[in-house]
Design brief:
Elements (H helix, E strand, L loop, with lengths): L10 H12 L6 E5 L6 H13 L13 H7 L6 E4 L10 H12 L8 E5 L7 H12 L5 E7 L7 H4 L3 E4 L5 H12 L3 H10 L4 H9 L2 H16 L5 H7 L5 H21 L10 H10 L2 H19 L6 H15 L2
Parallel strand pairs: 1-4, 1-5, 2-3, 3-4
Organism: Pontibacterium sinense
EC number: 2.7.7.7
Keywords: DNA replication, DNA-directed DNA polymerase, Nucleotidyltransferase, Transferase
């Protein structure tokens, strides 16, 4: 039997949904929420395979029926995965309209029709309104799963029509064991990568796969250079122009959290071990209020990027770096 890949930390969510399904209480719309990088899309795909399976066994798809064969060959006609045309771009109203055709026709294999929208927060207003109509009059045996790590960006009227499934962040030991196992690393190295990625295991795997270590070291070096006045704020900002700023600001925010925590607890421990000495030096000299203000600024700037408010990258970085340069003075 081919077991669906359900990560250990999502096991409870899995059992809960399977239970609803078995009692015929599964709602027609679910919103699957949890921080970025904990495996929501794997989870949704696995659950879709389970729902489509013709003879599931012990909360698992059987792996051998016609539906499982189609799913394993990556093409069940009753599973529809809706994503932006390009990562980071909005889901448009035309894409939702195309979905209507899928929902209105009869399931080809006679069971469920399952739709996964990923990420649900990428729907623009027109798309969200079009989906709303669908949620008001769902077809029979239709299950929609809306995935998001930005619940605040999903229209309240959509949220109110979906049952929420909260995916928890795993305990560090569980997540580190998973990362160590998957990437064949020792547990210290796995923990280090995991902490850079806010404890999210799939983000840690992506970090390793897409060579984000280079960007990471550019961040640490740039921050140190600004503090020691080896390079100007403008120069460092220029050197980061082409970087994934959302990622970069996310890392920077975690460093500021480390500094705040060190000040509050009078401790020298830093989660962001690769920047330990710099963060410790700053925490000894800086003012707590300034750290909070900078952390808030970083969050605000990151939000403007996420909301695609056409941020001027150079200006944005200069604002953040200028505040950083002043923090320990
Ligand atoms: Zn099956």
């Amino acid at each position: 039997m081919a077991k669906a890949e359900v990560f250990p930390w999502l096991g409870e969510c899995w059992t809960h949904l399977c239970g609803l399904h078995e009692r015929r209480r599964l709602p027609h719309a679910l919103i699957v929420h949890g921080v970025q990088g904990i495996g929501k899309s794997n989870f949704a795909t696995a659950f879709a395979h389970y729902l489509l399976c013709q003879s599931p066994v012990a909360d698992q798809p059987c792996g051998t029926c016609r539906a499982c064969e189609l799913n394993n060959a990556n093409g069940h006609p009753d599973l529809y995965v809706l994503e932006p045309d390009e990562p980071g771009k909005p889901i448009k109203v035309d894409q939702i309209r195309a979905l209507t055709d899928f929902i209105c026709r009869t399931a080809q294999q006679g069971g469920y029709r399952v739709v996964v929208i990923n990420p649900a927060d990428a729907m623009n207003v027109a798309a969200a309104n079009a989906l709303l109509k669908m949620l008001e009059e769902p077809g029979r045996d239709t299950v929609l799963m809306l995935l998001t790590d930005r619940l605040g960006q999903v229209m309240p009227t959509i949220k109110s029509r979906c049952q929420r499934v909260e995916c928890p962040l795993p305990d560090e030991s569980v997540a580190a064991a998973f990362v160590a196992d998957t990437l064949e690393l020792d547990s210290d190295e796995a923990t280090r990568i995991l902490r850079i990625n806010n404890g999210a295991p799939m983000s840690a795997l992506a970090y390793n796969e897409s060579n984000q270590a280079e960007l990471r070291s550019q961040l640490v070096k740039g921050l140190a250079d600004v503090l020691k006045q080896r390079r100007t704020v403008v120069e460092v900002a220029q050197s980061w122009q082409k970087a994934d700023l959302e990622l970069l600001l996310g890392w920077f925010y975690s460093m500021l959290v480390d500094i705040s925590r060190a000040k509050l607890t009078q401790s020298e421990a830093m989660q962001q071990a690769d920047a330990h000495n710099m963060l410790l030096a700053v925490s000894r000299k800086c003012d707590s209020v300034k750290v909070f203000e900078l952390a808030e600024l970083v969050q605000e700037e990151r939000k403007s990027l996420i909301l695609r408010q056409n941020a001027n990258k150079q200006m944005l970085l200069e604002r953040v770096l200028l505040a950083w340069s002043a923090i320990a003075r």
